[in-house]
Structure formats: structure tokens, C-alpha cells
Design a protein that fits this description.
Blueprint (H helix, E strand, L loop, with lengths): L16 H15 L5 H15 L5 H12 L10
């Protein structure tokens, strides 16, 4: 049995909470006051709808197969 507190083994613990809080604060500061997360998400959803709209029959079949296999989410369908 190995004694984890022997001179050959040292246990280190790091609390990254303060670092993560500072990182998130800096990210939000970099985004600025004009950043609107709801608007960004709506724009991404619209872009996804446009990406998968107007598919020909072969492309639609490929899309349907990828959705059925779980590769793509079904919500991308227009």
C-alpha cells in the first residue's frame, strides 16, 4: 500500500475560483456594453436556418441521415 503523504508523494490542491472570476470579468469587459446575448443567439439560430434551407433532394437526404445519427441537431431544419 502506498502512503500518499510520504516524502515521495505530495498532494497539491489549487483553488482556481478567484482566477475564473477574474477571467469572466475580463471577458464581459471585453464584450462591452453593446453585447446582447439574446440577439447573438437569435442571429446564430437564423444563420443555422439559412445554412440548411434550400437543400436539393440529395443534400436533404444527407442532412436527414446526419440528424438521425445524432451528428446534427434537428433544430437546424428550416
Amino acid at each position: 500500500m502506498i502512503d500518499r503523504n510520504s516524502s515521495d508523494h505530495h498532494i497539491f490542491a489549487f483553488d482556481l475560483t478567484e482566477h475564473e472570476t477574474r477571467r469572466r470579468t475580463e471577458v464581459l469587459a471585453a464584450l462591452g456594453d453593446a453585447w446582447n446575448p439574446l440577439e447573438v443567439m437569435e442571429g446564430e439560430a437564423e444563420a443555422e436556418r439559412l445554412l440548411y434551407s434550400g437543400l436539393d433532394a440529395e443534400q436533404q437526404a444527407t442532412y436527414d441521415m446526419l440528424v438521425a445519427e445524432g451528428v446534427l441537431p434537428a433544430s437546424g431544419q428550416a
